[in-house]
Amino acid sequence: MPTLKGKTLFITGASRGIGKAIALRAAADGANVVIAAKTVEPHPKLPGTIHTAAEEIEAAGGRALPVPVDVRHEDEIAAAAAKAAETFGGIDILVNNASAISLTGTLATPMKRFDLMFGVNLRGTYACSQVLIPYLRKSVNPHILTLSPPLSLDPKWFRNHCAYTMTKYGMSMCVLGMAEEFRDAGIAVNALWPRTVIATAAVAMLGGTISLKNCRKPEIVADAAHAILIRDALTCTGNFFIDEEVLSSVGVTDFSPYAYEPGTVLFPDLFLD
Fold this sequence. Notes:
alpha/beta; 7 strands; about 15% strand
């Protein structure tokens, strides 16, 4: 069975949550992981830094390169990519995971928050892809995996948090366009989204709107990402994957181990009927 052993993954926002879970799953195969995230010093409200994540990745069996990166700044992305290629000899996979969230309506979304979401989610995804694609072209099985939802123009996904929805769908439009643009180059470009809400620090900071006990662990997304990233890039591109469906396709039938609190009702994630 294919693995990620020896592959180099550039993962944005990998200091915690889903990004770190994807990193740890790759590390278990013996992969190299570039932790491209902002948190260098401990955050008063959020767990983990690029350095604590690096320690966990190496303990899991991988090699880690923690690099401070704000995905809103393409010069920082470029410097991190160059350092990664120099350290590991190339880059095989980009995971666009970094994201900012504010589930607020138009009048309750300050432009500073609007700019943050567009800068991190949409611009960050576009900029990271633009910088990393020249490196990915040199890989044997290159992948870009973006954590964004299937596209839909149903107004219900826009009415309560228009700005956030636009940014997440913007990430998905990058997948839609780049999958076709780089199909002949052999670079797989896909999206992945969870069926249920995932227990992360971002969810915890939403102020109790969603209880963690009604969520699944980040590991379900990590296992689904792994299943995608070991596929042949030439035959797996332009897809909007859902974590449950990916895992079902590889024989997983029992999802109960992924529950944050087994036996509780799970909340469906946004953007999925």
